[in-house]
């Protein structure tokens, strides 16, 4: 009997040690970073189909996406902050006429190019944004200045431009932003309006309202950041503002979960608070980034107004996992991980 008790006690100790080991192993697996640092970008989502792109046109987009993400990657690789990586990456995209942000911004109904942008720090939850500016060369710089050098989160219109000048940001003549292709886009939309048609329902134009650029990054210090910049919607009126400068809709970052930048029909992203909703599902429900992004983009967003909620997000979590989720035919996008592996895509994968 004594020997039996000794054997039972021994087995209990062995089982206890095994359980603790397995528990420790699972915990380490959950908390192990996939990437020491990572960066993901987008250049807009919408009616982007292979048949509408020549090889030369595809190459232009691929080259610019690679140039932009490489800038941010090098900042992260050298120990820089996720905020700096996001900001400098978006500047490259704003300076390119290929995207609906900065230089390539679409025209309003009145014939202006107006810009919205935002940036957020996942460590402090501090954020900055600007809306409706016409002379600030790089709106993402203005968003960063609002975050760092003002007590506010969002500045708009002429007041935002006054603040930009006070911060010695680069301002330009409004003509700098004008491009022929965007002007033709405005003319086309207006012609459709004369025929009692709307750009919202024309497949050839639909992607014009989805043009945005954005970036999300995780740095070596474990801090997340995200930023978004846009020229808004072609032919927009009445000072319309979309989701890009709205924290929680177009941009969100929280070190506890993830960093997100959105691109799509802004009104629906605002109504769905898309960027924050992904973070909330991770924080409160314990979903992975991939699960949360799919749940919001393919489920919640796509069901608003019987399928009118279209667009996508790029995001990175605090372990360096990245997602690029969208419910449109395409989204300009790219990722780079800590190993320097680059992935660029334009269309939906078959």
TrEMBL record:
GO annotation, biological process: proteolysis
GO molecular function: hydrolase activity, acting on carbon-nitrogen (but not peptide) bonds, in linear amides; peptidase activity
Amino-acid positions noted as binding substrate in the UniProt annotation, renumbered to this chain: 240-243, 263-266
Pfam family membership, one: Asparaginase_2
Sites annotated Cleavage: 211-212
Matching SUPFAM superfamilies: N-terminal nucleophile aminohydrolases (Ntn hydrolases) (SSF56235)
Keyword terms, alphabetized: Autocatalytic cleavage, Hydrolase, Protease
Active-site residues (renumbered): 212 (nucleophile)
This protein's name: Isoaspartyl peptidase
The organism of origin for this protein: Neotamlana sedimentorum
Top-level taxonomy: Bacteria, Pseudomonadati, Bacteroidota, Flavobacteriia, Flavobacteriales
């Amino acid at each position: 009997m004594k020997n039996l008790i000794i054997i039972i006690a021994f087995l209990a100790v062995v089982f206890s040690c095994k359980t603790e080991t397995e528990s420790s192993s699972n915990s380490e697996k959950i908390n192990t970073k996939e990437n020491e640092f990572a960066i993901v970008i987008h250049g807009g989502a919408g009616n982007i189909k292979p048949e509408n792109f020549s090889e030369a046109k595809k190459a232009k987009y691929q080259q610019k996406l690679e140039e932009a993400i490489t800038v941010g990657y090098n900042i992260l690789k050298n120990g820089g902050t996720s905020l700096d990586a996001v900001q400098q990456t978006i500047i490259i995209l704003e300076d390119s006429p290929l995207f609906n942000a900065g230089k390539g911004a679409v025209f309003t109904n009145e014939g202006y190019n107006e810009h919205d942008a935002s940036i957020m720090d996942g460590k402090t939850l501090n954020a900055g944004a600007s809306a409706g500016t016409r002379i600030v060369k790089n709106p993402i710089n203005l968003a960063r200045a609002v975050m760092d050098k003002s007590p506010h989160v969002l500045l708009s219109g002429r007041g935002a431009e006054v603040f930009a000048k006070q911060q010695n940001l680069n301002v330009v003549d409004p003509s700098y932003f004008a491009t022929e292709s965007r002007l033709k886009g405005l003319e086309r939309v207006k012609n459709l309006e004369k025929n009692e048609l709307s750009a919202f329902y024309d497949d050839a134009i639909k992607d014009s309202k989805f043009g945005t650029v954005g970036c999300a990054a995780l740095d070596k210090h474990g801090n997340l950041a995200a930023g978004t910049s846009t020229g808004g919607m072609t032919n927009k009126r009445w000072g319309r503002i979309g989701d890009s400068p709205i924290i929680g809709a177009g941009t969100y970052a929280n070190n506890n979960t993830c960093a997100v930048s959105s691109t799509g029909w802004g009104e629906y992203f605002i109504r769905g608070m898309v960027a924050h909703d992904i973070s909330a599902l991770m924080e409160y429900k314990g979903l992975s980034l991939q699960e949360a992004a799919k749940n919001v983009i393919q489920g919640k967003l796509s069901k608003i107004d019987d399928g009118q909620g279209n667009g996508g997000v790029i995001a990175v979590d605090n372990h360096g996992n990245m997602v690029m989720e969208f419910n449109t035919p395409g989204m300009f996008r790219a990722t780079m991980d800590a190993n320097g592996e680059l992935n660029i895509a334009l269309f939906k994968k078959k």
